[in-house]
Write a structure and sequence with these properties.
Shape: globular
Number of domains: 2
Number of helices: 8
EC number: 4.1.1.44
InterPro entries: 4CMD/NDH-1_regulator, AhpD-like, CMD-like, Decarb_PcaC
Helix content: over 70%
Pfam families: CMD
CATH architecture of the largest domain: Up-down Bundle
Keywords: Lyase
CATH class of the largest domain: Mainly Alpha
Largest sheet: none
GO molecular function, one term: 4-carboxymuconolactone decarboxylase activity
CATH superfamily of the largest domain: AhpD-like
Structural class: mainly alpha
CATH topology of the largest domain: AhpD-like
Strand content: under 5%
Distance between the termini: 45 Å
Number of strands: 0
């Protein structure tokens, strides 16, 4: 797999990463992140697009629902609640149901901590309420 990625140009990896990033996070989120770039954050945005999205999220070994489940768990474990809200939306976009997200959070309560899962449930409730309000 490394050989396949090494045969691609940095621009190809970036372009594939941007496509996946837009599919997973949505155009509105990516557009906001790009609009907020400045001389201090441009290199960081480029790095996450190439490495996270262009190298890891494009790998064939796991489907996007599994990658979302892993990402949710990691964010819960480390208390990254702002990122968690973004990835709850992404998980839904990647095909996870609300019930599956609940199960991931319950599993995380055992292995990451009940307080961390409690916070995650609150974040997800807010995301679901925002999505439901937008539908109505």
């Amino acid at each position: 797999m490394i050989e396949e990625h090494s045969a691609k140009t940095q621009q190809e990896i970036y372009d594939e990463g941007m496509a996946v990033r837009r599919e997973v996070l949505g155009d509105a989120h990516v557009d906001r992140a790009n609009a907020a770039k400045d001389g201090f954050t441009t290199d960081f945005q480029d790095m996450i697009t190439r490495y996270a999205w262009g190298t890891i999220w494009t790998r064939p070994g796991l489907d996007r629902t599994m990658r979302s489940a892993i990402t949710l768990t990691a964010l819960i474990a480390h208390g990254h609640l702002e990122e968690l809200a973004m990835h709850v939306r992404a998980a839904l976009r990647n095909g996870l149901s609300r019930d599956e997200i609940k199960e991931i959070f319950l599993q995380s309560a055992i292995y990451c901590s009940v307080p961390s899962a409690n916070s995650a449930f609150k974040v997800a409730q807010n995301v679901f309420a925002e999505l439901d309000a937008a539908e109505n």
